[in-house]
Design brief:
By secondary structure, this protein is an alpha+beta fold. The chain contains six helices and 23 strands. It has three domains: about 100 residues, Immunoglobulin-like; about 100 residues, no CATH class; about 100 residues, no CATH class. Strand 6 and strand 7 form a beta hairpin. The protein binds zinc ion (ZN) (2 copies).
Length: about 350
């Protein structure tokens, strides 16, 4: 074979030309004149082919330039190097140098493009800012108002859980948290997340839950949305409370899917109660209503303490191996005082 241009004889020709003649004056790589790079002004993430990602500005600019890179079909891009130069806040010139393999020879070429930084709001942020939600978790208490401490605990639980899951799914977020009479409403962006959180919380606290269709609507970006409400009704009792069960005082030590565990304050034996029996628990003292009594003396199974209201010295049974400090937690049930482990 010989080159139709220079006539040199060689092993291979491209389009009838030797490699020298083929490459002469030819652009091997090309970049478009400019490329628009979109950045969300709210979360500051950059738009890439299949979504939004967190990057630093330089990386985002150079990556954007490479998305526009094309090489002639005879070339295989072996490696690229990028260098960017800032023109102003929103304009950057990026020069790309590429090593190419053409017919087994390594050849370098370069080109440059202008990256124009454009502000926008990503879909997730526009939903979040537009108060988008698919589910409302209504947290309520059995009878009285929802206890403030419990309310904060539940809101924190939901926030942590959503934050963790949002790391793998950026469309999960809490829209708003609204305190209402008798409890709190948590607006969240996903029905399935609302459902799983409702189940988790109900199991954890022995709460009753109910799911209902609330309304269908259209989101600000024009999509039909179904909305569900998850009502979570907390029982009057919570872990740590002293309750009356079968006419005896117990400390409620834990709650779970199946029911709960009670510690008998007279014998310090633990028993399990089924979920269906929990409704018969009567709260004698909330966890934060328990009293402190000053310890006067201690012996193996008993301590002497000062009665918290009339200051007489009384004997209290304690469980084996209990660690007794200067004061102990007690509860008064009718006329009697019990040690609460
Ligand atoms: Zn030639
Ligand atoms: Zn965003």
């Amino acid at each position: 074979m010989f080159c139709v241009n220079c006539g040199i004889e060689g092993e291979e020709t491209i389009d009838g030309l030797c490699l020298e003649c083929f490459l002469k004056g030819k652009k091997l790589i090309r970049l478009p004149h400019h490329i628009d790079l979109f950045r969300c002004t709210n979360c500051e993430e950059y738009s890439v082919k299949d979504g939004w990602v967190q990057k630093d500005l330089n990386e985002a600019i150079e990556d954007a330039a490479l998305t526009g890179l094309s090489a002639i079909s005879e070339a295989k891009v072996v490696s690229v190097a990028t260098m960017s130069e800032r023109q102003d806040d929103k304009t950057f010139v990026v020069r790309v140098e590429a090593d190419l393999d053409i017919g087994g020879r390594l050849i370098t070429d370069n080109d440059s493009t202008i990256i124009r930084l454009k502000n926008t709001v990503c879909k997730r942020c526009s939903r979040q800012l537009g108060n988008y939600y698919e589910a409302i978790m209504q947290i309520r208490s059995g009878s009285k108002d929802l206890d403030d401490g419990l309310r904060d605990e539940i809101v924190r639980y939901v926030r942590n859980s959503v934050e963790t899951q949002a790391k793998n799914n950026r469309h999960l977020f809490i829209g708003k948290v609204v305190e209402v009479v008798g409890g709190v409403d948590i607006y969240i962006s996903s029905i399935s997340m609302g459902r799983s959180l409702t189940k988790e919380i109900s199991d954890l606290y022995g709460a009753e839950s109910k799911e209902s269709f609330s309304q269908a609507g259209t989101s600000s970006d024009g999509q039909d949305i179904n909305r569900l409400t998850f009502l979570i009704r907390f029982p009057d009792y919570h872990t740590g409370d002293v309750v009356l069960f079968d006419k005896r005082p117990y400390k409620l030590t834990s709650l779970n899917k199946a029911g709960g565990k009670l510690l008998d304050l007279a014998t310090f034996r633990e028993t399990s109660v089924r979920k269906s029996d929990l409704s018969s628990l009567k709260v004698l003292a909330k966890k934060d209503q328990l009293l402190q009594a000053i310890v006067v003396s201690t012996s193996e199974n008993e301590i002497q303490v000062m009665h918290p209201s009339n200051f007489s010295t009384i004997d209290l049974r304690i469980p084996e191996g209990a660690e007794i400090s200067e004061t102990v937690t007690v509860v008064g049930v009718e006329e009697e005082i019990f040690y609460v482990p």
